[in-house]
Amino acid sequence: MRSSIRASATPDVAAAAQGPAAHDSYWAMAWRRLRRHRVAMVGLAIIAGIILLAIFAPLVSPADPLTIDYAHPAARPGVGGHLLGTDAVGRDIVARLIYGTRISLQVGVVAVGIAASLGTTVGLVAGYRGGIVDNLLMRTVDVFLAFPVIVLAIAIIAVLGPDLVNVMIAIGLVAWTTYARVVRGQVLVLREQDFVQAARAAGMSDARIIVRHILPNAVAPIIVLATVGMATAIIAEAALSFLGLGVQPPTPSWGGMLNEGRGFLRVAPHISTFPGLAIMVTVLGFNFLGDGLRDALDPRL
Amino acid sequence: MIPLLFGISLVIFTVLRLIPGDPVVIMIGAENASPDEVARLRRVLGLDQGIHIQYVRFLGRLVRGDLGMSLSADEPVSRLIRERLPATVELTLAAMTVALLIAIPIGVISAIRKYSALDTASTVVALLGISMPNFWLGVMLIFLFALRLGWLPASGRSEAVSAGLVTLVTTGNPAMLITAITHLILPAVTLGAALAAVVTRLTRSSMLEVIGQDFVRTARAKGLPGRRIVFHHSLRNALIPVITVIGLEFGALLGGAVITETIFAWPGIGRLAIRSIVQRDFPVVQGVVLMIAIIRICANLTVDVVYALIDPRIRYA
After folding, report:
1. Residue of A138, A141, A142, A151 to mutate for B, most B C-beta atoms under 10 A
2. B5, B127, B131, B142: best mutation site toward chain A, by most A Cβ within 10 Å?
3. In a domain, B73, yes or no
4. Could A147 and B254 be called an inter-chain contact, meaning their C-beta atoms sit closer than 8 Å?
5. End-to-end CA distance of chain A, in Å?
6. Mean pLDDT score across all residues of chain A
7. What pTM value is reported for the model?
8. pLDDT at B44
9. Number of structural domains, chain B?
10. What pLDDT, in 10s, does the model give residues A91-143?
11. Topology (CATH) of A25-296
12. Which of A176, B73, B95, B126 could make a disulfide contact with A118, Cβ separation 3.0–4.6 Å?
């Protein structure tokens, strides 16, 4: 039964059979294609760097992100031994940026996790069941899509209250629709294929067919969506924190830092500049990797 | 479209009723909220009824264009929205104009001069534009053009651009129009930047695809001037996917307007929404969100009509 994964991957393998390693698995070949994708490798390097910073924050950070240097508030970069200066209160910006990676990555991973699992489940059920169930679920998706992402997220935050966990939930609850649509589209094609018919003829339960045979074949687009979704989630978290509806001070969040610097734009523009750059570089990393994954996982494009 | 609106109203109504905090207490202030007074106000506002009855009443008023009263401003929600909607529409249209004026020419040139310096530069800038949070761009633009250079005002809206135009035409005095436009530039660029990035890349790839097709080669072979091939044969075909994406992105633009309006103190419905959420003024939030959803749906309909204008093969029965 497990062979269905490989069976459906056969056309891809056959298409690439001219290559030197025709016997390799789909994933091994995708990885090889990804490694040749220069932009994707740059993205991967950026992401790896950010993850390392998040894990080893206490070791690499030059200072504590909450400690106030009373002698140097709003110090310019380089002043008072602060590489990128201090914020309006006198906290080291490098330290806060480094600790901020933890917030951004956490929100990204959890929000994408919520969105991907909810959306994939809805997409699988809608696509496989069809009929009224499909109709009902997809109309629900339409309703969610009619709201601008940030407006809906703000409304959810208003209900739940602004804090880290609620930001993750809000972003996850807003972002699931894309997964539902894409997965449903995949399932519609997959469920008509011979190996699914065979599984059904063999008396396999629907749940088992969905989990064992359909889902593994729909994983590639989910991975691409999730990678790009990390970028969107990180921007959304920053936007919510920027509006004061996200992670609350004094926790270092890039969006919050940017917002705190707004009032000091005239005297200390660097306070808002660096968090914005950090967001941009991180988001760029995930977008780069997403582009590369799209090319690597779907050789037909 | 009607079931969709029904679903939207149901979702937003339910979500907002879940907000913790009694709106009546917030309305009259915790210190002078005597139980009698609270009960009286709840009755007046209809908040003492069951939630399903509140919803049916809400729907009944909605079809008559009545969005209820604001809890904090003592004004009809429809009036609050009507006062602010023109500002948001102006901002969104300006952002779209800025985006398309930048994106389509650059996208076309990038496609025609593939791998040229301009093509590479535009690809890099577009990638940065997609990854840049628009609130950061807004803050940086304020710093550079308002605080440092002093060329443009940092925030606020003076008069409607349309009002400025009318003044120019009737009195010949351009001052009002100029002030209106200078206030509009920074917010419009902030809001339009991401769209410009998306459209540039899409126009480029769409043009490249069309240029590679047989009928373009035929056109070239029969000696048509390059300009005619680019504009008449290629661009028209290449614009179809671009228009689809513009329609889809219009919703994102409205969402982005919420943030842009907050940064620039732009008196539109986005700022109204944020303020109302903070004040738990849910009739207003409800009205604004419904309004935004309706505008989005109308935008999608418009896209369908524009298709038919650009591509005569598309006909709706």
Report:
1. A151
2. B131
3. no
4. no
5. 29
6. 84
7. 0.83
8. 74
9. 2
10. 888 889 999 999 999 999 999 999 999 999 999 999 998 889 998 898 888 88
11. MetI-like fold (1.10.3720)
12. A176
Q: How many residues does chain B have?
A: 317
CA distance B143 to chain A (A): 6
Domain parsing of chain A, residue ranges? 25-296
Are B94 and B49 within one domain? no
In this structure, are residues A270 and A93 in contact, taking their beta carbons and an 8 Å threshold? yes
CA angle B107, B113, B119 (to 5 degrees): 55
Read off the pLDDT of each residue in B119-142 and give the average, rounded to a whole number: 87
Do B188 and B258 fall into the same domain? yes
For B212, phi then psi, to 5°, come to: -80, -5
CA dihedral (B21, B22, B23, B24) positive or negative: negative
Of A161, A265, A280, the CB nearest to B139: A265
pLDDT at B29: 67
Residue-averaged pLDDT of chain B: 82
pLDDT of residue B316: 62
Is the minimum CB–CB distance between B150 and chain A shorter than 8 Å? Answer: no
- Token output for B92: 């969104």
CA quadruple B205, B206, B208, B212: dihedral sign: positive
User: Does B4 sit within 8 Å of A146, measured CB to CB?
Assistant: yes
Res A299: pLDDT? 57
Q: Would you call B136 and A243 a contact, using CB atoms and an 8 Å cutoff?
A: no
Residue B68: which residues within 8 A CB-CB, separation 6 or more?
B58, B61, B76, B77, B283, B286, B287
B8 has a chain A CB within 8 A of its CB: yes
pLDDT band at B285 (very low <50, low <70, confident <90, very high): confident
Contact B135 A269 (CB under 8 A): no
- State which of B14, B32, B63 marks the end of a domain: B63
Measured between alpha carbons, how far is residue B156 from residues A263, B140, B159, B182 in Å? 16, 17, 10, 10
Of A139, A269, A276, which is closest to B133 when you measure between CB atoms?
A276
CB distance B293–A146 less than 8 Å?
A: yes
Give the pLDDT confidence score for residue B317 in this predicted structure: 53
Please give the pLDDT value at position B94: 92
